TrEMBL record:
GO molecular function: succinate-semialdehyde dehydrogenase (NADP+) activity
Entry keyword set: Oxidoreductase
Taxonomic source organism: Mycobacterium terramassiliense
Name recorded for this polypeptide: Putative succinate-semialdehyde dehydrogenase [NADP(+)] 2
Entry keyword annotation includes Oxidoreductase: yes
Keyword set includes Oxidoreductase: yes
Enzyme Commission number: 1.2.1.79
Length: 450
């Protein structure tokens, strides 16, 4: 009997859809089809590959509201936020359509009659396993970069947003030759099968660090390349010389946007003692104003995990200034929550909570904040709010994370890359550098015959 995924509406608990899990034989068939399509797609002129991606981007834009509605029903993401994710995905596809044909190569002159060519080539079959919290925008980056550089792809959308992920991927596949983009549905068992498949050359995964470790181990055993973006425990440092009300607004945006379900959400806050009282008072007020502006968490299982982190903090001495209890009634709602007197041993400070929880720790000075923020096993991103140029310089140099944002929790130019570290993953995500990750350089030495 075929196993199925039941997707429930996080607002009501009603069933949204039931998706069959791809059988092992069908998963293997998808890999086979992608592998057989790989030589032909690699030979396709880069401009033609780019044109197909650009055409698919236009198709996605044309059904943006449909995709946003699917996303809202499956994950509870607010409609405008879901539309923003689709727009971001379209922009990413267009970026790779423009950059793909220009992807670099170079020549080296040896002797007068000899030349070394360095040419990027596709790696082969890429398995792309994406997350539910922004299913279109995240998939657009990995799929776009893999396809435009001549790889074929087997894509598994998250089991928490299977309809959104499949509909998006189908729009791309419709513009591509047969076999170039294959789609499978399933849970971690399907992801494991893709990671262990001998004919898969690259596994790109966005999800939990536990799953990422298993994928990295499987890829290491057979020599496949792995790209991982496995979340983070992003710190926010609030220096003594900033306006507390403004800083509280930044903290609330970072902690509460999309109900805290963003890979680079603010997870832990270090505020210098001299402005701590004014800051936490303003942050509690921000939490109240955000209460009507966030949707539910993705499901009740995730809500229970978020609440377990809050309960752990309270047991260990944290105080609740706002929120702290699941919302009444049906669904997976959790209110914007502010915790003070947090300590490093609490789960809200040491692990990724991935919910609308602002965990605040008061520290004596900026140096202490910087030292504690750096003492973490994750390495995705961090934010520093300061008017002191020397402090800003010291922070971006010393924080062991892939991205440091100064005075803007969600700052960053379009097209910028990110490179997680340590438990947060490995390899570039987005940006021109992702094209390098999806290709391998071949050196050709060319000399005349003797």
């Amino acid at each position: 009997m075929t196993k199925v995924i039941n997707v429930l509406d996080p607002r009501t608990g009603d069933r949204v859809t039931q998706v069959p899990i791809t059988e092992p034989a069908d998963c293997d068939e998808a890999i086979r089809r992608a592998a057989e399509a790989a030589p032909g797609w690699a030979r396709t002129p880069p401009a033609e590959r780019a044109a197909a991606i650009a055409a698919a981007a236009a198709d996605v834009r044309a059904v943006a509201r449909e995709l946003a509605e699917l996303n809202e029903r499956e994950t509870g993401k607010l409609r405008d936020d879901a539309l923003g994710g689709v727009d971001a995905g379209v922009g990413t596809l267009m970026q790779y359509a423009q950059l793909g044909p220009l992807h670099r190569g170079r020549g080296l002159q040896g002797g007068w009659s000899a030349t070394d060519l360095m040419v990027p080539q596709p790696r082969g079959v890429v398995a792309v396993l994406t997350s539910w919290n922004d299913p279109v925008a995240v998939a657009a980056g990995l799929l776009g970069a893999a396809l435009v550089t001549g790889n074929t792809v087997v894509h598994k959308p998250s089991e928490r947003s299977p309809q959104t992920g499949r509909r998006f991927a189908e729009l791309l596949a419709a513009r591509l030759p047969d076999g170039v983009l294959q789609i499978v549905d399933g849970d971690e068992t399907v992801g494991t099968r893709l990671a262990e498949a001998e004919r898969v050359d690259v596994v790109a995964h966005v999800g939990s660090s536990a799953a990422g470790r298993d994928i990295a181990r499987a890829c290491a055993e057979r020599g496949a390349k792995v790209l991982l973006e496995n979340g983070g425990n992003d710190a926010l440092i609030v220096d003594a010389d900033v306006d507390p009300a403004w800083a509280a607004g930044q903290a609330a945006l970072g902690a509460f946007a999309n109900a805290g379900q963003i890979c680079v959400s603010v997870e832990r806050i270090y505020v210098v003692q001299s402005i701590a009282d004014a800051f936490v008072g303003a942050l509690a007020g921000e939490a109240a104003s955000w209460a009507e502006r966030i949707g539910p968490l993705v499901d009740e299982r995730h809500r229970d995990q978020v609440h377990a982190h809050v309960e752990d903090a309270v047991r260990r001495g944290a105080h609740v200034l706002a929120g702290g209890e699941p919302g009444p009634g049906p669904g997976a709602f959790y209110p914007p929550t502010v915790l003070t007197d947090c300590t490093p041993d609490m789960l809200v400070m040491s692990e990724e909570t991935f919910g609308p929880v602002a965990a605040v720790r008061m520290v004596p000075d900026f140096a202490s904040a910087l030292a504690e923020a750096a003492d973490d096993r994750y390495g995705l991103a961090a934010t520093v709010l300061t008017a002191d140029m020397a402090h800003a310089q010291e922070a971006w140099h010393s924080l062991p994370v892939g991205t440091v944002k100064i005075n803007n929790v969600f700052g960053g130019a379009p097209g910028g890359a990110s490179q997680p570290r340590r438990a947060s993953g490995t390899g570039f995500g987005f940006g021109p550098e992702l094209l390098d990750e999806m290709t391998t350089m071949k050196v050709v030495h060319w000399s005349p015959p003797a």
